[in-house]
């Protein structure tokens, strides 16, 4: 019997752009210049993406998550030869994260959707992220944090999806068996393959019908209600 619904966050409960610099990096570059680090926007964008690619390549192999501070430290070492003070590093990361998060979009009707589900199921989040506060900040901005008493993030746990360890950790925290929950995500490898590998039922948001999911595919997040209520 399903007691819990575990959600991915980015791409599932909110829209977002995986492009690191699509929302613009003007404030981030200004932060650097104001702290005495001379670099053009084009140079920053290229160097920043290279640092992400370096850490992401390794993380794809090990499934060990990396922190946004790891990206920033690598960037400063590569570009300027050393890592600045913690105060400068934190201010730089906060500026970049805030600028990138401008591309996060909230679904109209999400509050009513979660309120309805929460009447029958316990809700939680298990999500990959490089920056721990980001999900909580968005939940607060959306005024939906009350629906998620448990938020498991890859950077706080250490391993990222699709590692079975992070799914088992979430189940342990919830004190439930895989058969008592469903997982909802938007990434076939990280969410669907990861969740089903530990015995979780998974619904995947697959708007373009890219994967052979049969009854496990959702055209839209809000389609979940009619699926779980009849499961």
Structural overview:
The structure is a single chain. This protein has 231 residues and is an alpha/beta fold. It folds into 2 domains: 4-16 and 104-228, Rossmann fold (3-Layer(aba) Sandwich); 26-103. The protein has 10 helices and 8 strands. The strands form 2 sheets. It has a 6-stranded parallel β-sheet with strand order 5-4-1-6-7-8, sandwiched between helices. Helix 9 links the parallel strand 6 (181-185) and strand 7. Helix 1 packs antiparallel against helix 4 (86-100) and helix 2 packs across helix 3.
Topology:
Elements: E1 4-7, E2 14-15, H1 26-34, H2 41-62, H3 68-80, H4 86-100, E3 105-106, H5 110-118, E4 122-127, H6 133-142, E5 150-153, H7 154-157, H8 164-174, E6 181-185, H9 188-197, E7 201-205, E8 217-218, H10 224-228
Parallel strand pairs: 1-4, 1-6, 4-5, 6-7, 7-8
Antiparallel strand pairs: 2-3
């Amino acid at each position: 019997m399903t007691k819990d619904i575990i959600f991915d966050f980015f791409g599932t409960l909110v829209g977002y752009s995986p492009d690191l610099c699509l929302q613009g990096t003007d404030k981030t570059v200004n932060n650097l210049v104001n702290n005495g680090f001379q670099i053009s926007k084009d140079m920053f964008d290229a160097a920043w993406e290279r640092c992400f690619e370096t850490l992401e390549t390794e993380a794809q192999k090990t499934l060990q998550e990396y922190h946004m501070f790891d990206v920033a430290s690598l960037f400063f070492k590569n570009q300027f030869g050393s890592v600045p003070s913690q105060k400068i590093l934190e201010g730089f990361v906060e500026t970049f994260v805030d600028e990138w998060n401008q591309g996060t979009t909230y679904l109209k009707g999400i509050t009513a959707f979660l309120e309805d589900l929460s009447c029958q199921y316990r809700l939680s989040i298990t999500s990959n992220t490089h920056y721990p506060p980001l999900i909580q900040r968005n939940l607060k901005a959306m005024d939906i944090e009350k629906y998620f008493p448990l938020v498991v993030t890859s950077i706080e746990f250490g391993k990222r999806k699709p590692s079975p360890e992070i799914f088992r950790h979430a189940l342990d925290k919830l004190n439930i068996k895989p058969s008592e929950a469903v997982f909802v995500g938007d990434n076939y490898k990280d969410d669907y393959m990861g969740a089903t590998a530990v015995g979780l039922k998974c619904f995947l948001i697959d708007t373009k019908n890219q994967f052979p999911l049969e009854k496990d595919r959702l055209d839209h997040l809000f389609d979940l209600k009619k699926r779980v209520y009849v499961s």
